[in-house]
Amino acid sequence: MSGLVSSTALGGQRTSPRPMGNWTALTHRIGWGDFPPLPAHNEHSNGSETPMAELKILQADTAYSFRSYFELSNDTDEVLAEFGYGFTKKRLRLPKTTRVIDGLPALQQQLEDTLPFVPLTSETAKREILIAPILSRVAVICQQILRIEYPLKVNNLLQGNLDYLIRSKQNLVVVEAKRDDLTRGFTQLAVEMIALSMLENAPQRLYGAVTIGNLWIFGTLDASTQTISQDIGSYTLPDDLEDLIRILVGILDG
Fold first, then answer.
1. Pairing state of beta strands 215-222 and 205-211?
2. Number of domains observed in the structure of the chain
3. Closest CA to 141 of 114, 163, 109, 166
4. How many C-beta atoms surround the C-beta of residue 14 within 10 A?
5. At what angle do helices 132-142 and 241-253 cross, to 10 degrees?
6. Is residue 16 packed enough to be buried (19+ CB in 10 Å), middle (13-18) or exposed (0-12)?
7. What's the pTM?
8. Residue 60: which residues within 8 A CB-CB, separation 6 or more?
9. Segments forming the whole domain that contains residue 28
């Protein structure tokens, strides 16, 4: 795994300020030279960039990290409205690979053998026993880089470290929800997907997941309609391991 995990910072150059509603934010345009090329992307069908709604919750002169959105007491739809995005909950039709998954039986057995003997009472335990083994296996299967605690800054409202990022034909961002709070964890995930959608050559649809280790919930971002959707279903470990792996690989295979 030594060649598949990296925490190298994103490289990028500063562009001129762009208008966002009634204020101006200085945006970093990120170069992804160390990634495989992605399809060309017009950020919206009308050629405009993501508009910024008039701020009601956030303060334009205040810097927010991605983690800041987890700490907000506002509902997810209220936070996303600050960025001009709508929010829905529905059954998502997620891609699922049908190819042979190397190492799946061994990973299943590893979880079955380990879980009875490791109390998942800390975020570190959940990360090392459940989250990291799954995402590292997916990185190996897809032959893509797994980036951990990956720094990203778009502007003062959209900045911080992404818990996990894998990028191929698609971006896949995963948030480890703190304090077992999947609701606020999804709000953080949604904001991170908005940040990724503002990068050059970002695809129209982005995928993400929020997890507390043994429970995973997916979300999607549709840039053309400026809508973020949360799956009403979830995936539980170890029982749903195969479905979870097939979905993660299906997303990255594009």
1. antiparallel
2. 1
3. 166
4. 9
5. 40
6. exposed
7. 0.80
8. 23
9. 5-253
